[in-house]
Amino acid sequence: MLQLSLLYNFFPLPTVGAYPNVQNLFGELGINDRLQWKEHSMIFAMPNKPGEFSRFDFPEVLPSPLNGIWAILRNNEMLTWPEKVKFAIGLLPAMLGGQPYVEAQDGLSVQEWMKKQGVPERVTDEVFIAMSKALNFINPDELSMQCILIALNRFLQEKHGSKMAFLDGNPPERLCMPIVDHIQSLGGEVHLNSRIQKIELNDDGTVKSFLLNNGKVMEGDAYVFATPVDILKLLLPDNWKGIPYFQRLDKLVGVPVINVHIWFDRKLKNTYDHLLFSRSPLLSVYADMSVTCKEYYSPNQSMLELVFAPAEEWISRSDDDIIQATMTELAKLFPDEISADQSKAKILKYHVVKTPRSVYKTVPNCEPCRPIQRSPIEGFYLAGDYTKQKYLASMEGAVLSGKLCAQAIVQDSELLATRGQKRMAKASVV
Ligand SMILES: Cc1cc2nc3c(=O)[nH]c(=O)nc-3n(C[C@H](O)[C@H](O)[C@H](O)COP(=O)(O)OP(=O)(O)OC[C@H]3O[C@@H](n4cnc5c(N)ncnc54)[C@H](O)[C@@H]3O)c2cc1C
């Protein structure tokens, strides 16, 4: 379920409070020691003071939501007191209205909600552009306010809701392999490089088999489709296209994003052992992996991993163009150490990873279109972060969706066993 191809290591918010299912997964696999926890802070670059950062520090001694409120009140560089007060008043209905209020805000973009609540525009510019880009790779004029409120709820309700950890190395080896080993230790099989090419149907419209791109045919009692939503839509059988459950998927469309990795010839000084919000128009969050992540640790050379977003206009541009634009932005974050023409730090190598359709774009009014895991087709189930679950399009959401899917299959076990028996009987007659 987790992408094997992407080399991202950011794990925002994976704490007992905020990412409980991911935490459980790490615990069950016995790999908790692979999470490198960072200080409980959020650190933002200051565009009008190049090279400077502003911090929100969440004190350990205070319970939530006091630690979050304290962090906001103590930060005077990004928001003025009148702005903080107006923002707090704007947020009051969310605090009092709880989950029903949060869900009702799905119809509004972040920008529209801020305007409706009388929150000064500068609050969006200073804080929510960065947050929107980090959460869904888009700007506040597009992002559904529900998405921000879900994240804020986590920050304010859980003591460690905004604490971050990095995986200590590349996800395929450090996270996916233990999952594979676990499945195999229980008698399961994992087939790599075996994409579903076609969903073949029985006469009654239920699934007969999955045809794979290597020619293999997979038959089973229950079928779980755990690809991104765009792939499901591409492979959806014609007979199913008129079913409202599947028709609603049209609104869910993956958002483009680009991941940039740059290895420099020297150690950059103006950085932290943390995820940083760049607040640059082209970039979202970034980190110096030579500091934050064991596998890339180096005392002499920095390796920056950056999320380039929104990427709509850049996804078809050349890697050279993207690196040049990234360097121009980095020159503002590291004015003494990086210049766009590489007359200061020099690039040793780089990777540009383009994902034209990543997590679904959380624009207003998407929530009713997210499917539950049990489809109306008997024996066919969905899993993935876009399916219905209370977290955002995130690793936590993906893991929870897998659990909900498994739960639905267990609930249907009798029905599935009967289907299995019929299938076996039919096969033996043929
Ligand atoms: C750049 C980037 C950074 C991110 N950072 C974070 C982060 O720091 N924290 C966080 O919580 N989330 C992060 N996310 C989001 C997170 O990666 C997703 O929410 C999560 O991976 C979704 O899991 P999933 O199982 O739903 O889908 P995926 O992880 O996309 O898994 C779907 C799988 O389906 C496979 N597949 C595709 N087509 C087929 C086919 N035809 N047949 C069979 N298999 C197929 C794919 O190869 C893939 O392995 C990030 C996403 C991106 C793009």
Automatic annotation (TrEMBL):
Q: Which UniProt keywords apply?
A: Carotenoid biosynthesis, Chloroplast, Chromoplast, Membrane, Oxidoreductase, Plastid, Signal
Give the matching SUPFAM superfamilies.
FAD/NAD(P)-binding domain (SSF51905)
Pathway assigned to this chain's UniProt record: Carotenoid biosynthesis; lycopene biosynthesis
The GO annotation for biological process reads: carotenoid biosynthetic process
Query: For this UniProt entry, which residues form the secretion signal?
Result: 1-18
The UniProt entry lists the main location of this chain as plastid
Q: Which NCBIfam families match?
A: phytoene_desat
Q: Which cofactor does it need?
A: FAD
Q: Does the keyword Lipid metabolism apply?
A: no
- Might you give the EC number(s) for this enzyme? 1.3.5.5
Give every Amine oxidase domain span: 17-409
Q: What is this protein called?
A: Phytoene dehydrogenase
What is catalysed by this protein?
Answer: 2 a plastoquinone + 15-cis-phytoene = 9,9',15-tri-cis-zeta-carotene + 2 a plastoquinol
**What is the similarity comment for this entry?**
Belongs to the carotenoid/retinoid oxidoreductase family.
